[in-house]
Amino acid sequence: VVATVKRLFRNVFWVALTVFLCFGIYLITRDSTSTTEQKAASIGASFVASTLFAAAFWLIVEKQGKELLQSELSGQLREELKNQFEDLSRAIRQPSTDYALDELFPSSGQHFDSRFLRSFLPSFRATSHFNFRGSSAKYVPVYMSILKKSDFRCSLLLIDPRNDSALDVRALDMNPTMGIQEKLQHRARLRDDIHDTIVALFDERRRCNRLEVGFAHLTSVSRIEKLDADLFLGIYRQGQNYPDILRYSRERATYQFTEKEFSRQFLSLSQDQSFDLTNMDADDDLVRLLKHLGFQTASSDLPAVRQRNSLRVEKFTRRCKQDCGFDPR
After folding, report:
1. In whole angstroms, what is the distance from residue 214 CA to residue 224 CA?
2. Phi and psi for 233 in degrees, rounded to 5?
3. Burial class (CB in 10 A: 0-12, 13-18, 19+), 213
4. Which of 255, 225, 254 is nearest to 137 (CA)?
């Protein structure tokens, strides 16, 4: 557009000069009464006048051209800015599907949402790799038992029962104003849950190609249950024993960066914090692990623990059938 406008004004200028030159020559050839000196003087005066006219004409044309050019550019710029703003507005209003939530399972605070179990259990049954991050994972061996799950890899990241501070932080998630005595009681219950979970995982270890359990000194406000097809992200709210559950499919960015976050946390554990239960053969190995984690457990204590775990499996199985309409067989 700029080049076109300049070319137009340049052509107009040269056309005007040519017209005036031809008209002057015509007038000179028509004059037969003036001497050569007079004609030369007239031509000189005409050149001066033509120069002044050309300069004045050029200034006028240049000014008009600039105004026309500025007007054209201003209009184009406004139109371009308008289009860019509209594109940006559409992009802001359009939510990114990369982070979209596939499903929400709100918790009553007292038990898992039945819809969550109907969605989670089939996905757990079909997975080849399961990652868990949370407080005690007391339901993971229950899932393995009732679904007769086998031939898969399982990685769990729990709170280190040797770290009282980490246990107390989890207690404060439940109630920030918790008193000392109540905090000690919660700490003891959480350590008991972790203890019984380790025994249950040991008993279910043959179902896994690899069953590795890590114990972290840090806690998180979210609980991770990652399977091949889905990520179930649990978000605890104050006073809730069970979290709200958010489900993300494998295609979501939340699934992918949560998977990477879990891997980084697990790989950062020391040998003192990570254990492969599939390498253990007898109850003596289990007792040594429990003592290493700070529990005063003897082989004679294991039958009572296994009885508690068996009751948990039976209770959960009944709930799956009655409340969820899901038969784990």
Report:
1. 14
2. -105, 115
3. buried
4. 225
Give yes or no for a contact between 292 and 298, defined as CB atoms under 8 angstroms apart.
no
Query: What are the CA-CA distances from residue 149 to residues 187, 204, 207, 233, 277 (Å)?
Result: 31, 9, 6, 21, 16
Enter the DSSP assignment of 87. H
Q: Coil, helix or strand for 294?
A: coil
> CB-hemisphere CA count at 13 Å for 32?
1
Task: Please give the Cα distance from 114 to 263 (Å, whole number).
Answer: 29
Least confident of 63-67, 106-110, 246-250, 302-306: 63-67
* Residue 7, C-beta contacts closer than 8 angstroms, at least 6 positions apart: none
| Residues 224-253 pLDDT 10s | 999 999 999 998 777 677 788 999 999 999
Give the whole-angstrom CA distance, residue 304 versus residue 38: 135
d(CA 129, CA 155): 8
Which tokens sit at 124? 């757990």
Cα 143 from Cα 313, distance rounded (Å): 8
The answer to whether residue 64 scores a pLDDT higher than 70 is no
Report how far residue 193's alpha carbon sits from residue 272's, in angstroms, rounded to the nearest whole number: 20
Q: Where are the alpha helices (DSSP H) in the chain?
A: 2-30, 36-93, 114-126, 140-147, 164-174, 180-203, 253-267, 283-292, 302-322
Contacts of 223 (CB under 8 A, 6+ apart): 132, 133, 134, 135, 233, 234, 235, 236, 243
Provide the 10 A C-beta neighbour count for residue 318.
Answer: 10
Residue tagged 């507005």 (tokens): 89
Residue 244: predicted pLDDT: 87
